[in-house]
Specification:
This protein is of the alpha/beta class. The chain contains 20 helices and 6 strands. Strands 2-1-3-4-5-6 form a 6-stranded parallel sheet, sandwiched between helices. Helix 14 packs antiparallel against helix 15 (326-339) and helix 18 packs antiparallel against helix 19. The longest helix is centred in the last third of the chain and has 19 residues, at 417-435. The radius of gyration is 28 Å and the shape is elongated. The chain starts with a strand and ends with a helix.
């Protein structure tokens, strides 16, 4: 039997000489293995595929039994290119039906940068593309992948959902034993093959760290911080080095005000392996725990300051403000606004920096008012922007404009008790002006 494997966008050792997708598992399996690897995010489009299609046909026809296998982009290709290798069965993990925005743009923009209108027109999977009995594995709780899978139709397709794995559903089938089981199950055409595959994988995921990572994150995002802590504790017993789980536990602990647990959790996180986004989260917690110097250190050791992510730049600017470094904060926010002049949060943060200290050279109230007006125009539904705008107008002497902004806030969310004195004072001033 020949396994025809199609690679995803990225995998370990992707550019290492003599490596191929699935090589560690392939060497342990009693099957032949043909790995068709993409070194770019082209989704095995027609232009790229035509170059190797004849070679694939010549190699695969030497084997009487063939099975297709792929994950994500590779899952799409295993289905889309099945007529060129004529498999008996196909196992596709979390495939896309297309990456063309005309087909999927209303629910998935993850791959918009990979889309090329010259290469990917008419790429959507059609029932006629799939020539073999196919098993599609996905997480039905992950709405984006679910919507893709629901668009993949055919008379001989079975859908197998493995919950709380998100787009990483293939990792629950990791290992030679699991893959051998799935391949043989698929080839046997046995009764209840779909139910048995699902039962096997659902049992196996209970020892899978990625499953616990997703489950912990889901509990936290759903507002169940206590569950998130309990699940993360169980996951960390299986693997104490799982920084992804520890990161979610850290946030859950802070939400529950478990500060001592949060401090202990920080110590078990491998900071050097975190992304810039994760470092922003950890640094924010450190600030709340009073660890200002440590928070600054990990942010300065990251690539945030040299990057182009405006959200991360805002976080670093906020760190500078905590240390009283107003000029450095404003400089960073100026760069963020240049990077994305339509980011209302960047505009608002820069405005606040410009009017933070009258005695500082960066003080520029007229520009702050202009920036905040732009922020309210770009994101009119954010009350915080309107409050900042009203305050800026008030201190600039425009009581009528400030009162008008407060009236807008009143329509949106009402006036909070802490703001009522200011509102009523402005109201009396404006009414006095009108009567005069």
């Amino acid at each position: 039997m020949l396994v025809v494997a199609f690679s995803p966008m990225h995998w370990p050792n992707q550019y290492k000489k003599d490596s191929y997708w699935g090589d560690a598992v392939a060497r342990k399996l009693p099957f032949s293995w043909l790995s068709i690897d993409a070194l770019a995010e082209h989704w095995f489009c027609e232009e790229k595929w035509l170059v190797i299609a004849e070679l694939v046909r010549n190699v695969t026809r030497r084997f009487s039994v063939r099975i297709g296998y792929g994950h994500s982009m590779g899952g799409y290709a295993a289905l889309k290119r099945s007529h060129d290798y004529l498999p008996k069965k196909i196992l596709a993990f979390a495939p896309q039906c297309s990456i063309n925005p005309d087909d999927v743009g209303h629910f998935d923009t993850r791959y918009i940068k990979a889309f090329n209108p010259n290469l990917h027109q008419g790429m959507k999977l059609q029932p006629s593309d799939i020539c073999a009995r196919s098993f599609i594995f996905f997480d039905s709780r992950f709405s984006t992948d679910r919507k893709h899978v629901l668009e993949i139709r055919g008379d001989n397709i079975s859908y197998i959902s493995i919950g709380y794995m998100s787009h990483d559903v293939i990792f629950v089938a990791k290992g030679a034993v699991s893959l051998a089981y799935l391949f043989m199950r698929a080839m046997m055409d046995g009764f209840d093959d779909v139910r048995e595959m699902r039962r096997y994988l659902c049992a196996k995921k209970k020892t899978n760290q990625i499953y616990f990572s997703h489950l912990t994150y889901k509990a936290f995002r759903s507002g169940h911080a206590k569950w998130a802590v309990d699940i993360s504790n169980r996951a960390l017993l299986l693997d104490a080095t799982n920084s992804r789980v520890a990161l979610v536990k850290l946030q859950a602990c802070m939400q529950l005000n478990l500060k001592e647990d949060a401090r202990l959790t920080i110590d078990r996180i491998d900071i050097e392996k975190l992304s810039d986004g994760d470092i922003v989260v950890v640094a924010g917690v450190m600030l709340n725990l009073g660890q200002k110097e440590r928070a600054l250190e990990i942010m300065m050791n990251s690539s945030i300051a040299d990057g182009k992510n405006t959200k991360h730049l805002r976080a670093l600017a906020n760190m500078f403000l905590n240390f009283g470094w107003l000029d450095r904060a404003v400089e960073l926010l100026e760069r963020a606004v240049v990077l994305d002049p339509k980011d209302s949060h960047c505009l608002s943060h820069l405005a606040k920096g410009l009017m933070k200290n009258k005695e500082h050279p960066t003080y520029d109230l007229p520009r702050a008012v202009t920036l905040l007006r732009c922020a309210t125009e770009i994101s009119p539904g954010i009350v915080a922007f309107w409050k900042s705008y009203a305050f800026a107008l008030e201190i600039s002497g425009d009581a009528v404009g400030a009162f008008s902004a407060w009236l807008h806030i009143k329509k949106m969310s009402g006036i909070e008790s802490k703001d009522r004195i200011r509102f009523e004072a402005l109201q009396s001033i404006v009414l006095g002006v009108i009567k005069t």
